[in-house]
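queue> holo job accepted (pyridoxal-5'-phosphate)
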Amino acid sequence: MVRGIQHPTKGTDMGALWHPFSDMAAVERDGELVLARGEGAYVFDESGRRYLDATAGLWYANVGHGRTELAEAAARQMSTLAAYSNFGDNATRPTNDLAERLAGIAPVAGSRVFFTSGGSDSVETAAKLARRYWVEVGRPEKTVMVGRQKAYHGMHYAGTALAGIPGNREGYGELGPRTETVEWDSADALRAAFEEVGPDRVAAFFCEPVIGAGGVYAPPEGYLTEVRKACTEYDVLFVADEVVTGYGRIGGSWFASTRYGLEPDMVTTAKGLTSGYLPMGAVLVAPRVAEPFFREPGTWLRHGYTYSGHATAAAVALANLDIVEREGLLDEAARLEATLAAELAALADHELVAEVRAGTGAVAAVQLADATLAPRAVLALRGLGVATRAVGAGALQVSPAFVMTDEQVADLAAAFGEALDSLQ
Ligand code: PLP
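queue> job finished
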């Protein structure tokens, strides 16, 4: 690791690119950092500078960067048949194989798999499917969706409305379906919302088992079991948004739902499905919700995407899951749970740190006492060769590739300490 903060030279020849979630006037003024290459837990910019990737991209590069095996899987499929739509009775072999594979690891046995192009698509699919389900079973008045404060459910209309990050909703006016937001950590608040809206009107409750982009918050003890129970009692569909937590991020099992003993009615996923090598998502739909659409010809879900089940993305997903299995990466994520908690713990005593949230899977956050310091902390870390970003209200995200070693985690923690010292 490079010692001492050395700010990279940033390029200013940006041209037409509009960066997502970015203050473009500031990016144009200050320049952008162009990343060129990745290898394991590291990425490299165009000048060759190396960064320890604390976040695995946007929580997706679970198997690490630069896996030629995945590039080869893509090349093989792409040069055979890159993609063919799965609309109607069309299918491709990798898509079928992947669906089988996901059904085999889904938290609920017998799940059906609906493919999407990413996490926001998965959430939108689950939201629409929840409503369609209630129509199919003769309860069309069940339309209201409930989400939690701090929650992030992607950026399509339903997900933006459902999420509990107020800034992301501002300036868009009325957003899609009626949604209610409840406290993130209270099952009683959820029950109260069901009562208030009227259980006959609530379609679904969306829940990240571990809150990610809202700042990395593990569920309070017993919370998930309680909210699952409340959904069963009130006959509300329980949707686990596992776009971040799925495919091993929570350690030890493929899904956080399995770790917490939940049986979701739907599981929304993306990211770790392909480790981000190609964009792809999937909704795992429990038999209860899928059944009305498989019962008899004539009832079908008029919903889907051009790239639902994209053959090359599916081939990459299969190869990615092979790597996770072969290299025991679910266990490696569990190892990281312990290492992150141990290595980051000391930062809690730092004057600028309010709290360290770690100890639930391969995710953690260093919460700054003063949220306005976060952008400077991110820059200082970059200057020390660590790539991270701010999430929630001034928390620094840590969600490494499962291949990050304990030594690299120690390097990362040391850099966090040094970066924070530089801000004092
Ligand atoms: N749901 C959760 C929990 C997420 O964290 C994200 C993205 O970070 C999404 C949905 C949206 O995924 P995407 O950005 O792939 O559309």
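queue> The chain has two domains: 24-63+329-423, 68-326.
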